[in-house]
Design goal:
The structure holds two protein chains of two kinds.
Chain A lengths: L2 H8 L13 E7 L5 E10 L4 H16 L6 E7 L6 H5 L2 H17 L4 E5 L2 E3 H6 L6 E4 L4 E3 L3 H8 L3 H8 L9 H6 L5 E2 L6 H10 L7 H8 L5 H13 L1
Parallel strand pairs in A: 2-3, 3-4, 4-6, 5-7, 6-8
Antiparallel strand pairs in A: 1-2
Chain B lengths: L19 H8 L6 E3 L24 E8 L2 E8 L10 H16 L6 E6 L9 H20 L3 E6 L8 H8 L2 E5 L9 H8 L9 H8 L1 H6 L5 E3 L3 H12 L7 H17 L6 H7 L13 H9 L10
Parallel strand pairs in B: 3-4, 4-5, 5-6, 6-7
Antiparallel strand pairs in B: 1-2, 2-3
The chains are: A alpha/beta, B alpha/beta.
């Protein structure tokens, strides 16, 4: 499924997202109830660097400044943050965090945010976009991962074969959509055989004010400890 | 709670060389630190055994409360010498619990110090670690909206990279030392993926100029410059708590403007020294060799270095 197919399915009433040479997604779509959705994202596996962050963040800030309560859809297919000395020299960490901050503020100001991962999603770019939304879904075939196994083998100095074997047993570590669902990062995957517009509306309706990803991970068994430990620390702090 | 007698850490002890526990002991008023879930509770990673790796009884993160120059604070410190100070299921959840507690209870101290010393996500627990960073970032923003000042202190051996770099930039303010380094992809990772022509990670001067504390402070990527001592970070942290920007539209619009202006101003710079020249520093090569006092004087004249867009 291409992003054009996904957008057509999400917005049968129409949208104005056009292909751009910088692979950014910027536009809006019409909901079936007549309302508007602001759409931002990154396409074609393009790495997210400082030049990509700024227009996306600006769009989010414009939505907040305009008031109202239109939702924001964040569509993501990126291999990760751009790896370049120039971007690092300018402080890429500030740029990526800035986008995440804009998305969180949007939620707080009444604009629900929905993430949709349909291709790759990795590392810092994942944190700045899809993981900064209120709720994150994925298309089947999406490949969210912190790092691929060959790179992981290099960094951990473990044989790739051993990592492959371990990745069968533990969602805490194994790359891929199933793991990301089990640990609670991704709420679920959408069914392309059913109307995407309805699945998007259902996602919007189910958004909660609290971050429940730790509880979800515990319930699904992919991240058994995090919620309990966070709760124990908070209880000790309150005394 | 931790009943062990607390060792004295001298004011002049190097932050870079100290352990996370030494940093906490030295930073806070003597005897004021109270740890939550101390090592005696053995809150440790259940995943490292799969990789035949040793565990730490605190999973490399220490959380608690204490007093900073008489003021009540919550505090968390990453131990960069255990698994690179990485975010993982347990270590991340300890940070998360502390920040959420401050967010939800206005009786708790209205300041959190995050002593970051981390290469990012622990790859052996990659998914849990990545998600922990996302949760911690969200909790920091929510705490800021609830009026909590969240201050990042960066000066340890592992620096603040990957998810830790994003976490630092999510805080209200950042203090950094000359030895402090921050960014997203570390030089080694860029060299491995893009080649030595893109980033030569063995060129120490280059690495220092790109990721190091002095560059970050000059271009406004950090808000205070600390001498590499326990007392240096104490002063920097104390001064920043009262200058925490609110988390709102005006602040983020200011940050958008600031980050856009930075791209334009430095568009033609291929080295950090060229950026410093654009900032009005007439002898950028001297930045490396001057002492801390001289550097602080230079920073005071750089307009971009100090701002409320964070």
């Amino acid at each position: 499924m291409t992003v054009a197919d996904i957008l057509a399915g999400l917005f049968p009433g129409g949208h104005d997202v056009a292909e751009r040479p910088d692979h950014l997604i910027l536009g809006s779509g019409r909901r079936e109830n007549g309302g508007t959705v602001s759409i931002i994202g990154i396409d074609d596996g393009e790495p997210l660097g400082i030049s990509g962050v700024l227009p996306l963040a600006e769009r989010v800030l414009d939505v907040i400044a305009a008031g109202g309560n239109i939702p924001i859809l964040v569509i993501v297919d990126t291999q990760g943050q751009r790896m370049a000395r120039h971007d690092e020299m300018l402080g890429l960490n500030e740029y990526l965090a800035h986008l995440a901050k804009c998305l969180r503020l949007a939620s707080h100001e009444g604009h629900p945010t929905v993430g949709l991962n349909y291709g790759k999603a990795a590392a810092g770019a994942f944190l700045a976009t899809a993981l900064a939304t209120d709720v994150l879904f994925a298309m089947p075939g999406a490949e969210p991962a912190v790092m691929d196994l060959p790179s992981m083998a290099r960094v951990t100095k473990l044989p790739e074969e051993k990592l492959k074997e371990l990745s069968q047993t533990t969602p805490v570590f194994a790359p891929g959509l199933r793991s990301m669902i089990e640990v609670g990062a991704v709420a679920g995957s959408w069914d392309p055989a059913k109307p995407l517009s309805q699945q998007f509306e259902a996602a919007l309706a189910a958004i909660t004010k609290q971050d429940l990803r730790d509880m979800t991970g515990a319930r699904r068994g992919g991240r058994k400890l995090a919620a309990t430990i966070a709760g124990r620390v908070a209880a000790a702090a309150i005394g | 709670m931790n009943d062990m007698p607390e060792a004295r850490v001298s004011d002049s002890a190097s932050w870079f060389l100290s352990t996370a526990r030494e940093r906490i002991a030295g930073l806070l008023d003597h005897g004021s630190f109270m740890e939550f879930l101390p090592p005696t509770e053995r809150v440790q990673s259940p995943h490292l055994a799969l990789f035949d790796l040793p565990v730490a009884f605190d999973d490399g993160v220490i959380v608690g409360r204490g007093r900073l120059a008489g003021r009540d604070v919550l505090i968390a410190a990453q131990e960069g010498q255990f698994m690179g100070g990485t975010f993982a299921e347990v270590s991340g959840a300890k940070l998360l619990g502390l920040i959420r507690a401050a967010r939800d209870n206005d009786k708790l101290p209205r300041a959190i110090l995050l002593l970051l010393d981390s290469g990012g996500v622990r790859l052996q627990e990659a998914n849990a670690g990545e998600l922990a960073v996302a949760e911690v970032m969200r909790a920091i923003m929510e705490a800021r909206m609830a009026g909590v000042a969240v201050i990042a202190l960066v000066g340890g051996r592992a620096g603040a990279f990957g998810g830790a770099g994003l976490t630092a930039a999510t805080c209200s303010r950042i203090a950094i030392s000359e030895q402090g380094r921050t960014g997203v992809s570390g030089p080694e990772v860029i060299e491995t993926n893009k080649g030595v022509e893109e980033f030569d990670s063995k060129d120490k001067a280059l690495v220092w100029s790109v990721t190091g504390g002095r560059n970050r402070r000059l271009i406004g990527g950090a808000d205070a410059y600390a001498e590499d001592t326990v007392s240096g970070f104490r002063e920097a942290a104390s001064s920043l708590i009262d200058r925490a920007p609110t988390f709102d539209l005006a602040t983020l619009q200011a940050e958008q403007q600031r980050l856009s202006a930075r791209v334009e101003r430095f568009a033609n710079c291929s080295t950090a020294a060229e950026m410093w020249r654009v900032l009005g520093i007439t002898a950028p090569q001297s930045i490396r060799d001057m002492n801390d006092a001289a550097f602080v004087k230079i920073v005071a004249d750089v307009k971009e270095a100090s701002h409320d867009g964070r």
